Amino acid sequence: MREPLNADETPDARCHRHQALLEAGDVDGARALADELRRERPADGDVYVFIGENYELAGDLREAHRWMTMGLMRMESQIAARGDGAATSASILVQSRYRVRRALELPLDDGDELVEIARSGERTGERTGGSTGD
């Protein structure tokens, strides 16, 4: 599992509990905990990334996709109010969601196309020796 976006903040501890439940094979317990989190509509994008990646690592790609999509929609609605924090979370979610969508062999959507454009630009910069991060 990845580190939280802000190293000074700890993600919701239930994210780690969710991971432990899945690793222990308690899928029902993990789902109940995830449902509890979902009902609270967390404002922290890390929650959606952590839970989505927990499901991805457990092989439940449909549920991973669901969590990453929920998180992306939540962060998109918060970008105006929260600025960089929500935008950073949205960026991570769209990239993670792309990975899961490719594994599920889903057709490209707008978010996937953004990731492909960004990756294409990175590859072009590598071939020409240029930098795309300036």
Automatic annotation (TrEMBL):
<dbReference type="InterPro" id="IPR011990">
    <property type="entry name" value="TPR-like_helical_dom_sf"/>
</dbReference>
<protein>
    <recommendedName>
        <fullName>Tetratricopeptide repeat-containing protein</fullName>
    </recommendedName>
</protein>
